[in-house]
Amino acid sequence: MKQYMQEIYSQSHQDYLFCMVSDSGSTWLSWVGDGAEELVRESYEEYEGGEYIIFRPATTRKLKIVPPLMKVLENRKEE
Question: DSSP secondary structure string, 6-39?
Fold first, then answer.
């Protein structure tokens, strides 16, 4: 999956690319892009390193995924 994400990212002209996959008990978030891991590190206390983060129980992008990312990006803009 990471290889496919990297291919899409290289064609996208975006700063970052995130992929969220959920099942009944957890949500996995993976990313590619320069600085994406640092963004994740600043956004989620749960992040312990690696190529993805797992949220348990499963969550939605509107409640748990997007708001922390946007908050960090907005704070960076203000600096």
Answer: HHHHHHH--S-EEEEEE-SS-EEEEEESTTHHHH
Residue that is written with structure tokens 């960076």 in the block: 76
Three-state SS for 60? coil
DSSP character at residue 55: E
CA–CA dist 46, 60 (Å, integer): 16
Task: Look up the pTM and report it.
Answer: 0.87
**20 CB neighbour count, 10 Å cutoff:** 17
Res. 66 pLDDT band, cuts 50 70 90: very high
Residue the block writes with tokens 């690319």? 17
- The domains found in the chain, sorted by start residue, are 2-78 (3.10.310.20)
Is the pLDDT at 78 greater than 90? The verdict is: no
Amino acid at site 26: S
